[in-house]
From TrEMBL:
Keyword entries, A-Z: Signal
Region (Disordered): 79-111
Source taxonomy: Bacteria, Pseudomonadati, Pseudomonadota, Gammaproteobacteria, Methylococcales
Name listed for the protein in its UniProt record: Metal-binding protein SmbP
Keyword Signal included in the entry's annotation: yes
Length: 111
């Protein structure tokens, strides 16, 4: 009976961990996409807010990721960091391009 209980607990923890990773990727994608949209409309400060949130979630997801997925998430983090830097400098066009690149990497991390 104990073995069965331990098995269920183990399966539960695996599922919770997988859900948390998917949740971080979904939230990161949502905010990176919002950053791109606001950047296209010239709203630098809103782009910055969304890029920061996306970066937090990309970094959280990359902690558990492996292989190609991890590589894409690391690239997304680099692009989001650059989007943040560029938007803080007032370069909305360049920031938007980096946010858009991050969206691509986040999407590719799910494949």
């Amino acid at each position: 009976m104990k073995k069965l209980a331990l098995l269920f607990i183990g399966l539960f923890l695996v599922n919770v961990t997988a859900f948390a990773d998917d949740h971080h990727i979904d939230v990161a994608l949502e905010h990176a996409t919002a950053a791109t949209i606001y950047g296209k409309n010239g709203h630098t400060s809103v782009l910055l807010e969304h890029a920061k949130i996306a970066l937090e979630h990309v970094l959280a997801a990359s902690l558990k990721a492996q292989g190609v997925s991890k590589s894409h998430l690391e690239s997304a983090a680099e692009d989001l960091e650059e989007a943040i830097s560029q938007s803080e400098s007032g370069h909305v066009g360049t920031a938007t391009r980096h946010a858009r690149a991050a969206v691509g990497h986040i999407k590719n991390s799910e494949k």
